[in-house]
Amino acid sequence: MPDDPVPGLDTGGMKWRQSFDTRLIARVGIVAAVYVAGTLALAPISYGPLQFRVSEMLKALALVHPSYAAAFGLGTLISNLTSPFGVFDWALMPVVDVAAALLCYRMRRWPVLALVVQALLIAAGVAAFPLGMGGGFPLLPSFLSVGASQVVLLLAGYGLVRAVQRAYPAGLA
Predict the structure, then answer these.
(1) Residue 91 has pLDDT above 50, yes or no
(2) Residue 17's pLDDT band (boundaries 50, 70, 90)?
(3) Among 36, 62, 78, 84, which one has the highest count of C-beta atoms within 10 angstroms of its own C-beta?
């Protein structure tokens, strides 16, 4: 599969099938740690049907390299260990996040559409699993609430990723 550039984003020459290197593994670990720290620091607004998980802005990195999907899976797993929704949150949501991030990467030629799709997949997962099955909240209102915050946060994250790449051209991939 060719490594098609994302309009406005630099993948640093990384290829889809390129093997992991030490720097990439370190970046994945750092992103996962920042995700966890941001989620837990803002825990009152990070969980529940009216969540605004600011750390979700990091998920725009899915446009840059597919390995960041692992960071989101790991970060979500660790963050959700403290969730009031239990196994539905820490066991199922990491899988949803990884799948959504990988799909976002595959759609990277259309970054805004890719991020909206990623946001809506995550919102569907949150509405169905932790909120619906774990908390008994109604599906549609939960999806709409979480979906709105996800779209806002991922698009804001896209702006931040682009700004960082302009300032540090070789820094994200």
Answers:
(1) yes
(2) very low
(3) 62
Contacts of residue 62, defined as CB under 8 A and 6 or more positions apart, other chains included, come to 68, 69, 72, 100, 101, 102, 104, 105, 114, 118
The domain segmentation of the chain, as residue ranges, is 22-167
Task: Give the residue carrying structure tokens 């799909």.
Answer: 103
User: Taking a C-beta distance cutoff of 8 angstroms, is the pair 11, 3 a contact?
Assistant: yes
For residue 84, pLDDT beyond 90: no
Element holding 72 (H helix, E strand): helix 68-80
**How confident is the model at residue 114, as a pLDDT?**
98
**What's the angle, vertex CA 75, arms to CA 4 and CA 7, rounded to 5?**
20
Residues belonging to the chain: 173
Residue-level pLDDT at 82: 85
Contacts of 16-22 with C-beta under 8 Å, sequence gap 24+, read: 16/66, 20/67
Helix, strand and coil in the chain, % to nearest 5: 70, 0, 30
Residue pair 16/106 in contact by the 8 Å Cβ criterion: no
Q: What is d(CA 42, CA 132) in angstroms, rounded to the nearest whole number?
A: 22
Is the alpha carbon torsion for 44, 50, 54, 59 positive or negative? positive
Classify 9 as helix, strand or coil.
strand
